[in-house]
Design brief:
Length: 587
Amino acid sequence: FFFLMIRRPPRSTLSSSSAASDVYKRQALLLAMTMSILTAARSDLILSDWMGQTMAVIGNQSVLDLSLPGTHDSLTYDLSLVVSDGGIDGEDDLSAIAHDLTELGIAPDLITDWIRQNAQTQVLNVTEQLDNGIRFIDFRIMYEAVQKEWFGLHMLQTSQPSLDYLHQIREWVDAHPKEIVVLWMSKHGSECKNGTDQFPGVSIEKKQAFWASVMTVLDGVLVDQSLYTLRETAISELVAANQRVVIYASDYIEFTTSSKFAADACYIQNDLPGGIGNFAGCDQDLMTDLRAGASKRASLKAANRFWLVSGASGVGDTIKYSTQMHFNPFLTKDEWQARLSCAKVVGVVNATSWCPESLLGYAQLTNYYRQAWFNFSLDPSCAGCDLPNAVYIDGVAQGGMIATGDRMLTTPDSTPVCEQYEWTSCEFEQPKCSPGHTANGEYTALGVVDTTGYTNGPCAIPFQKHFQCCRDQPLTQESARFGYVATLVAANLRRSCLATTTPECQAMMGLVLREIQKAPMVLWHDDGFGRQATWPRLDDPNPHLPHPHPRPDAGVKMSLFDGSPNWERLDPHPNRNRDRNPKDPSA
């Protein structure tokens, strides 16, 4: 507890009234300072206003000095079931045919629902993303010929025209007058494609008409880059002038007519490390970049370039195998072989049969391995470490976190996680599931295969069914998160505070580090979900191989800045060594 004693000043006389007044003033100032300290000690990082909250420390940085937390394919939380005119890259005619089929409702919902679950990367809407600290928006757009309007896209077009989402961003920016937001407008994340290579079949007139609408929506807050430079102007100056929205535009000349209110996206250094199929190699490359991050940032800034790194990962050839698993329910042997082939492409050591069936499943797996990269970025022993100008990533959750656990962000908490499961033998009603499993209400009379490879043929007796039982996981593994936004905020503070240590630096850094500790890096070992606690080892010359360090039986929590495992045991896996009778799937 902090105690403050207030002494009564001397009685007022002609000679002492001034002294009394000074005592009161000093005591009032001391009381105000004390209350400020106590308030700061209790306060939290305000994700919706983190720039304003930290402006006293980071305000001298320019846009090309900052590290911004971003989202990848930011609008995919609101995808329709209609394939976009630009939905299939390099296949314009096929995109048009698929668009017509889905627009007319000819394609079955079974197919379009599956396409959507393999196109969605986010669950928070754009306002929620900004409220949770996101400051880089990957704003992908395409002109749709039937609607004669621009929509967002990722294979499928968004439910609303893209200007609707832009209006929401403008409303948010007006409500948060000390925050700066960077948007990148493209069709599919191509920095320097121009003309119809960027926007197939779209005329210059349509592009420029849309840009005029963008200018109208964001009038008064777009950075005028003839007056303020992204390389030199301090963000505190941009905020004071209300120049708070930066747009990087692909197809800059045709799209914006070289507008002073936009930057050419060719100035984006867009690093795409990947992940699926090569987690070890990709994370090794990321760590190499990170260790030299300060010098890389400096050289790119000198060239007026914005260093962007994707934390996302494509699914690669796994989509072929997950398609076979999803749409070939009659041949259980083929389904099992497709699962094995998919797991091989995913490439996580010892995870020989795990194949996510949604893009968010891959995203959360990628986030699990990416968190080590973020965690290391604040290591005080690495003077040259620094993060890029922005990271854009999938699976951003409430609290400015990224999901790293087993439960998909789209799966309700009341529903069992069912990426790993077994089926019962043919029964008339749901039997009791075997230990460590929970029924989810799904059933079928067709042939089935467990995620362990055990098969059961079709039920021959009418009204009998196989019932699905989902493997249980500890809650700590289901709901695991990592403090993504807070880590990037800390990187901005660290950059400013390296030059000078002030009480403001210490106070703000302490506040942000406390925020990070609300969701530290958590690791565990579970082959069934592709999670390894000691692989890949980023300091190992052979990171692709299992590390000889003994793996714990349960999850581990890594303290901030840990360079080596510091195991803190979590709930044990409830089903680690359960033996099954191969002749009885319910055993």
